[in-house]
Every structure is written in structure tokens, then in C-alpha cells.
Design brief:
- This protein is α/β, with parallel strands linked by helices and about 240 residues long.
- The protein has a single domain (about 5-235), classed as Lysozyme-like, CATH 3.40.80.10.
- The chain contains eight helices and ten strands.
- The strands form three sheets. Strands 1-5-4-9-3-10 form a six-stranded mixed beta sheet. Strands 2-6 form a two-stranded antiparallel ribbon.
- Strand 4 (about 50) and strand 5 (about 55-60) form a beta hairpin.
- The longest helix has 18 residues, at about 100-120.
- The chain is globular, with a radius of gyration of 17 Å.
- The mean pLDDT is about 95.
- The structure holds zinc ion.
Length: about 240
């Protein structure tokens, strides 16, 4: 696939022995061109940007550690920049409106290459919101996780498996999937953003959304416990 290279100097070496084990997906309300400028101003980076028309830009070599995830945790991995490749998608509503088919087609091609090259486990294809649930809402409730799972990118659940999981403890179930549950409201809401997006409110003000990532009093609704359990089954395998 055609990739436009526009390298930024904001990266460093991956720590010795740190293998790429995760793919972190983001979105930003800027166009690709604006995003490059914003990253420059903030001295940040990601490996790739995909514009709304499907155009792919590479900013950092996959061999290097790009600076996209910040403080983060998933399945015991901390600070995921060292273990991951990061892809940003341009999305004016921060992933609250459907992504364009051109953009998703490019994402599928690029993600498949990366997943195959590093043998990334499907459990480690994650949203920025999954690994930083108190801070980040991206790539948003409209991100097509279920569709991508049919293309070999990430996982989706089969609700018929819910009964195979014994525990009903929300924190325990989220932990099995991979979430850091030190803020249970945040982790529960991040789970909804990924797997039960109809429970996530739409926010027409993107700036407000960025500052109010989750309702601090959010409690995971019991009516959706079977979805959470089915996910834990899929991600846990051991139960
Ligand atoms: Zn992000």
C-alpha cells in the first residue's frame, strides 16, 4: 500500500529487549495535515496517521518508540509506547460518527501487515481508551471493532459463551480482559466504548468530551453483564 513518509523527530529507542506486542488505535479531531503540526508543537508522535480519505502517512519507523500512548496499562504491560505500534485516525467528531470506508480499508491493510509482522495477539489490539481509561476517549464509540474482528483485527464476543464464566464480579471480569481497574468507573466506561457503545453518551462538543472522558459515578449496568462475561471468556480463554 502507498505510504507517504513525513518523519518527525519525536521518538526514541525501544528499551533493550522490548518486543512489539500491541497495536494501539487512536483518533484525533484534526485532519492528517493539522495533526502533523499539532504533534510537532507538542513534541509527540505516532507511527502512522490515516486521513479521512484513506491516505496513510508514516511519521516514525516501527523500529523506534513513538510517543502516542502516555501513561497506560493493559494486561500487565505498563507504558505501552515501548511495546506498541500506534495508529492515529483523523475523525472530526472524535470517533462519534461513522468512519469512512476508505479510512477503514486503509486501516485494515496497515493493521494486518503490522499484526502479521510482529505476531501481535488479538487480545493486544486495543483502543487508547482501553489502556488509559481515565484520560482518553479515542478512537471513540463509532469505531468499528465488531467489523474489524471479522477481518482478523482484535476480538469480538459471542454472547452464548457468557454462561461459561463463573464470576459476576465486574472488576474481576474487566481485569481478565486486560483493563487496569484502579478506577472502576473509568474502566467500565472504556469497556462500554469498545463493546457496548449504545451505553456511551454522544457529546457534540469535542473539547468537552476530551475533558470529560467518563462519568465519575458510572456503574456497569447489570443488564449487560452477559456481554462483559462473554468478552472475559473470549479474552481469558482460561475460564
Ligand atoms: Zn490517543
Amino acid at each position: 500500500m502507498k505510504v507517504i513518509r513525513e518523519f518527525l523527530p519525536y521518538f526514541d529507542e525501544r528499551p533493550h529487549g522490548a518486543k512489539v506486542r500491541a497495536l494501539v488505535l487512536h483518533c484525533s479531531a484534526h485532519s492528517a495535515a493539522e495533526m502533523v503540526e499539532v504533534l510537532r508543537e507538542r513534541e509527540l508522535s505516532s507511527h502512522y496517521i490515516i486521513d479521512t480519505d484513506g491516505k496513510v502517512l508514516q511519521l516514525v519507523s516501527e523500529k523506534k518508540r513513538a510517543w502516542h500512548a502516555g501513561q497506560s496499562e493493559w494486561r500487565g504491560m505498563k507504558m505501552l509506547n515501548q511495546y506498541s505500534v500506534g495508529i492515529e485516525l483523523s475523525s472530526p467528531t472524535l470517533g462519534q460518527d461513522t468512519y469512512s470506508s476508505e479510512q477503514i480499508a486503509s486501516l485494515i491493510k496497515l493493521s494486518r501487515q503490522i499484526i502479521r509482522h510482529y505476531q501481535i495477539s488479538a487480545v493486544n489490539v486495543v483502543a487508547h481508551s482501553d489502556i488509559a481509561p481515565t484520560r482518553k476517549p479515542d478512537p471513540g464509540k463509532a469505531f468499528p471493532w465488531q467489523y474489524l474482528a471479522t477481518k482478523g483485527i482484535g476480538l469480538w464476543y459471542d454472547v452464548n459463551n457468557a454462561a461459561k464464566v463463573a464470576t459476576n464480579d465486574v472488576a474481576e471480569l474487566l481485569k481478565i480482559i486486560g483493563y487496569d481497574v484502579s478506577d472502576l468507573a473509568a474502566a467500565s466506561y472504556a469497556f462500554c466504548r469498545h463493546f457496548v457503545p449504545q451505553l456511551v453518551a454522544t457529546d457534540d462538543d469535542v473539547n468537552h468530551l476530551v475533558d470529560n472522558v467518563f462519568p465519575p459515578d458510572f456503574v456497569f449496568p447489570k443488564a449487560y453483564l452477559s456481554v462483559l462475561k462473554a468478552c472475559a471468556y473470549k479474552y481469558g480463554k482460561l475460564l
